[in-house]
Design brief:
Elements: H1 2-18, H2 27-40
């Protein structure tokens, strides 16, 4: 679980850095998508 948490933290930072269309998605939709992506891992 500790390794997963480290990976998820790094992945989120990298994803946010390269997600160029972030400004086109409202906050709730973005949070829902990130939660779904994390649940898949």
């Amino acid at each position: 679980m500790k390794t997963l948490q480290k990976f998820a933290s790094v992945h989120a930072n990298v994803h946010n850095h390269f997600n160029l269309e972030r400004h086109l998605v409202d906050r709730q939709t973005y949070k829902d998508r990130r939660s779904a992506a994390l649940a898949e891992w």
